[in-house]
């Protein structure tokens, strides 16, 4: 009924783009943060080698540089794509500091603001699938690079359907590298007391699918929200669906 291999005991879900449509919230926050910085930089450099303001393009920049990556890595990745190298910085940076840490913090502040003011959309098919998973007696975990995962789950009304969470806060506390490294997914499986071959990874990001493949999990489900099914398969997805409800035999 769940479209999963026999012997599956746990389902490990990415959050943004798989269970909730917070990807649009994150994309809007990334764009606002980067555009503010890029505009200021262009105005400051004036007659420099490349003074023109080129805004962050959600269609061409979000997927390759920030989607599915830890916030600091995503910030640095996009900046380098524009030939910009900034100091890493740290928690003591002032809000306006020109460091990767300060910019990433600004993005996180914007996300939290938008979650409260705009809210969180939940994919109905994912909710149906989560209920079916729980009814089948499988354990569930959310594995996300976001530090706001608990807040998103609460706002979305999904907390009672999730048994465990390994998020950006967990990764920082444990020193776990982010996706595409498999460490966060492996940690979730270990925390749930299941072997990786007994766990299924659900991901919409290429980096996330790659991490599931690299971790040697029993099955990797790619969720195609952006029309890149072939790329998801190339990165290691065993099956690709447009919505989790497709995995339910009766589609209900």
UniProtKB/TrEMBL annotation:
SUPFAM superfamilies: HAD-like
Keyword tags: Hydrolase
The keyword Thylakoid belongs to this UniProt entry's keyword annotation: no
InterPro entries on file: B-phosphoglucomutase_hydrolase (IPR010976), HAD-like_sf (IPR036412), HAD-like_SPP (IPR051806), HAD-SF_hydro_IA (IPR006439), HAD_sf (IPR023214), PGP-like_dom2 (IPR023198)
Domain of life: Bacteria
Family, as annotated: Belongs to the HAD-like hydrolase superfamily. CbbY/CbbZ/Gph/YieH family.
Name of the protein described by the UniProt record: HAD superfamily hydrolase (TIGR01509 family)/beta-phosphoglucomutase family hydrolase
Organism: Pseudonocardia kunmingensis
Taxonomic path: Bacteria, Bacillati, Actinomycetota, Actinomycetes, Pseudonocardiales
